[in-house]
């Protein structure tokens, strides 16, 4: 795993504090009431046992002393009243917190999705970003989400409150003037210093717990990082393959079930092993805690019990002080445990923060494209080379090309020649690794990025339509001009089909949640063409636009191409050589290089690659 994306290096206190403040900031931004709510409820909850301890002792003492019944009943009512109010408050805050939990979770998902949609395309595809995204999504789940962080922070503050309450309860035994009974060891046991010693033991146990917890959590976090690849693979198999009906055809026809299940089982075994290792660590932590806690309990009972036996305190006080000391020990232990959990939790959630902070490296300039006249637009590739991130070979090499407004250009070449890559660079979805792309003589990075993108209407080879209405798909917006939508659908040859849908252009596509229309591959391609036309961009790029169209539809597209494109510039990629003929200029790419360019006639006369490809295809039609 790349260290750039996720690292578990030892961090300074300052860095941890910074992370803590980031996560607190996230909490506050997502819901400003969640932390106060969790803090309040835990502070109340921590006090509840002490109310029982103190009142229980007073009531028992009063009973033994045979005090007036009304006095005893008054204490019972107070105990019930305070317990009722505290429990009620606790439940109100708990319910409010639960109600906030889901909305916070959805807001986190919205943040992550929003970031994924706005991140530089180049960044989005990088291995580091993908890992960080998985970590952000998984970390959010793994730690129980951001709500879990504030919940655990609340519990931690509750532990601190519990220690404070225990001190208040124990004050009398520390301050009461003592008449020491017995001699030698008994005097030591009866001295108040021995109580301080118990505090000290609790303090030492806290450090011991901290050490146990820290080691355990470190191991758990390492296991979690190790598991990220397995999680991604699991997502791929489970969400992308087996739960999608579109992959069902290949799985059946090529009997891929066993092969896929074999790979999936491997991933699941890996995940189960990870889970087992985690549970093992948690179990070991728990056992160590229990042993230390039991030892402390024995010491507390001995010290306080001896006082009771010697008549220095009443039986009820023995119960009260032992309960307070036990609660103090528990609170110390839990405080450390919860502190470590909050730190671990914060570590997970920090990936979410880091993902949201991923910078967009794309330089956007301040030059406006709107100032340029469409008919004067010229895009020039100046010695452009390009290598995909993580790849070792150049997909484009020293490309020098010019695209003029109004030109119809065909890009042809064998598979893997670099045609789609060239288009991705032209649209600035990727940046050249060498050379420059100029718009009217100025580097395209000098122009406003959004405005530059708006100049292109593209139908990619692997275009995507979305589960929304036809009109929204075409206009890529909630607001649209219905007349214009009809026009472009008509130009793309799909208007008749859309018109007959139950709700026409307002009909949803695909069955996701609501019942939509399942369109065929060719129909979808026509809608994608309509979307590119609706954009009214000066540059239209069609990457294999007719690959899914029937011969008639293909014929209609070509014969009406001029009407379709009008005077805009069109770059057209196709493996059907006959369909390139209508283009004024044909650029032939091979191995990432421009091998030849010219009109159809010129290239045939030249008898190069184009002529070879043309003749090879023409033979099929003879
Ligand atoms: N995301 C990517 N990461 C790494 N290499 C890539 C990526 N996309 C494409 N390539 C490589 O870049 C080269 C050019 O690919 P490109 O898709 O541009 O070819 P093409 O001419 O459009 O091919 P086809 O006719 O098959 O669509 C290929 O060798 C391909 O393996």
From TrEMBL:
Span of domain ABC transporter: 379-616
UniProt main location, coarse: membrane
Annotated InterPro entries: AAA+_ATPase, ABC1_TM_sf, ABC_transporter-like_ATP-bd, ABC_transporter-like_CS, P-loop_NTPase, Type_1_exporter
Protein name, entry field: ABC transporter ATP-binding protein
Keywords on record: ATP-binding, Membrane, Nucleotide-binding, Transmembrane, Transmembrane helix
PANTHER family linked: ATP-BINDING CASSETTE SUB-FAMILY B (PTHR24221), ATP-BINDING CASSETTE SUB-FAMILY B MEMBER 6 (PTHR24221:SF654)
Subcellular location: Cell membrane
SUPFAM superfamilies reported for this sequence: ABC transporter transmembrane region (SSF90123), P-loop containing nucleoside triphosphate hydrolases (SSF52540)
Transmembrane regions listed in the UniProt entry: 43-63, 75-93, 153-173, 193-212, 287-306
Bilayer disposition of the protein: Multi-pass membrane protein
